[in-house]
Amino acid sequence: MSINKFNPRTIVLIVFIFVTAAIRTYLSADQNMFGLSNFSPLGAMALFGGAYFNKSWKAFFFPLLALFASDVVLQFTVFSKPGNGILYGGWYYVYGAFILMVIVGRLIKKVRPGNILLASLAVVVIHWLITDLGVWLHNPKYPQTLMGYWQCLVLAIPFEWRFLTGTLIYSAVLFGVFEWLKSKYLVLARTI
Asked: Looking at the domain assignment, is residue 1 inside a domain?
């Protein structure tokens, strides 16, 4: 790669996403923080990558890679169970929801607090409906009816409130710090 093709913006975006994934891994691994389950940067990570990477493949690839790397670390340390595989059960619902969250980030045309707030709300609804669909379908505790799915959704509300709080806080930090850096270093404002 020639020095002319080096894009500091891409490097900074990747660092932001992987640092966020590392924070997720650390907080999930810390047993003292387990009461904050779902207070997660996942929604913010997806929105951030979707909003700032100018190429679609980067917008999906780097956030998904960071999610996968943090999941693998967690699976082989904190949540390891013999024979459980490289990822947890139902991972495909989480990854499907995550892909849709990145799409929401791609729809952000101007980074403004109101747009980030609306996108964060959309991300939480996506997470709630899709990940809990997996819980409902694979948990015999819930009847396989519309009322059973509704019951699952209602029981998930406290977790989704924490997910919303995490998404809002991490989004404010990620978007706020990057916008501040863009104003200080014009090279970060250039998209290549």
From this structure: no
Q: Which residues of 35-57 are buried (b: 16+ CB within 10 A; e: fewer)?
A: eeebbbbbbbbbbbbbbbbeeee
Residue range of the domain that includes 49: 7-188
| Tens digit of pLDDT at every position of the chain (192 positions) | 445 566 899 999 999 999 999 998 888 777 666 566 678 899 999 999 999 998 999 999 999 999 999 988 888 887 766 556 678 788 899 999 999 999 999 999 999 999 999 999 999 999 999 999 999 999 999 999 999 999 999 999 999 999 999 999 999 999 999 999 999 998 888 775
CA dihedral 73, 71, 28, 90 (to 10 degrees): -140
Put simply, whether the predicted model's pTM sits higher than 0.85 gets the answer yes
Count of domains for the chain: 1
Q: At what angle do helices 8-29 and 42-52 cross, to 10 degrees?
A: 170
Answer whether residue 74 is part of any domain. yes
Kindly state whether residue 2 falls inside one of the protein's structural domains.
no
